[in-house]
Amino acid sequence: MSSVQEVVVLGGGVVGAAAAFEFARKGVRVSVIDAEHEGRATAAGAGIVSPGTSLATNLPNRLLSYQAAAYYPELLRQLQNAGNGDAGYEVVGALFVATSEEEAARLTVTAKLFEERRLAGAPNLGDVAVLERRQAQALFPPLGDVAAAIYIPDAARLNGRLLRQALLDGAAHFGAKVVRGRGVPVCAGGELKGVRCGDEALPADAVVVAGGAWTREMREAVGMDLPVAPQKGQIVHLEMGQETGAWPIVLGFHSHYMLAFPKGRVVVGATRETGSGFDTRVTAGGLHEVFGEALRVAPGLAAGAVAEVRVGLRPASPDGLPILGPIPGVDNMHVATGHGANGLTAGAFSGIAVARRVMGETVDIPWAAFAANRFA
Hints:
This protein is an alpha+beta fold. The chain has 2 domains: 6-44 and 161-227 and 318-375, FAD/NAD(P)-binding domain, CATH 3.50.50; 91-156 and 229-316, D-Amino Acid Oxidase, subunit A, domain 2 (D-Amino Acid Oxidase, Chain A, domain 2, 2-Layer Sandwich). Helix content is 30%, strand content 27%. It has 9 helices and 21 strands. A 6-stranded mixed beta sheet has the order 9-2-1-13-21-20, covered by helices on one side. β11 (191-197) and β12 form a beta hairpin. It is globular and about 65 Å long. The two termini are 34 Å apart. 50% of the residues are buried. The model has no long low-confidence stretch (mean pLDDT 95).
């Protein structure tokens, strides 16, 4: 059994909530201190779970994402046993579209890459197939004259807000406490003394810093810089006036996407505004980018009513990898942050992995690639 009996998690997004749920269900007393910042990435993220379709070359990130995606069914079963398994998770498939003849010429090689990944064990792919334009349009009716598309039948989507709440509710089911406010670790001589939140002092055998885009505010308290910066994402929700729950996700050779939810909701996005600071305004430039790309690929979305625009501040690290594991210099201080645009794929599993490490369990992820001191 773990020697850690009392833990404080700083941050109540998906990462922190998942860590708290793992601690609580294994009998560790845990408090989540949530500053409830405006612009939290969890509240705005799209929730695409299809890591095998990523064309990024960063192997550690991809391997972490594979583990995370494969773990979702087990996590949802655990949440259901705790009384709330509703995270909006559903396997709906995806279309990886080619919008030009040049992109269409790359589809065969891309489909072969996806198939190789599936055979190597990548989750959420299935037997991929190249579709003609009309086949793709039959699955996602607003699509325009795309050249062709790869169909990925096992891609899934989820609702980040529902997932976060399910994790917090699950943690509370096992006795976790959620405190609203700003928590600051108290350390002396390389030893963790506890956490201060306003006038309250909370005891802690260990602390997990899961502060998202605000993680850097902890640098003085933890004794080192955790170089996470906010990357703004603007994302638009449309109401289509018809049932859309069975429509697949739409991806492609670009960073924009579309995904549908039941009862007519289609989400399109998103901007990736590096250097944005903590600006949570909806801007004309951001909307122009999102609508321009969405209507270029799927002009049928033009009939949709704008239901809302969400702005999230992704926690982005300098090298695009999350920061996971111990914080050097202070015993029992750990961090879980920096997922960038990959938070709803890998964030929950990352929080769980760090919680397990705190409890002395072995977790087979590339910890060295994610180490906090790699930026020193």
